[in-house]
Design brief:
Blueprint lengths: L3 H23 L4 H8 L3 H8 L7 H11 L3 H7 L3
Helix pairs in contact: 2-3, 2-4
Amino acid sequence: MPHKSVLAGERRLRAVGSALRDCRKEVGLSQELLAVDASVERSYLGAIERGEVNVTLLVIARLCRALNIKPSELLAKAKL
């Protein structure tokens, strides 16, 4: 069984991914358009939204810039 902190980390990654997806949909962007605007691969963006990868701060900053939000807004939406 995974360590408790690993499970908590996975919950946080899913929370950030879900918040990112919500923000993207609120502004009416597809994954493809957001990926292009933020200079990330569409498949990587999908993995972020599903909480499958530990996204870096630099990528969060690029995604938030493309969504015209602050990283702090994204993290607040994720309740982190």
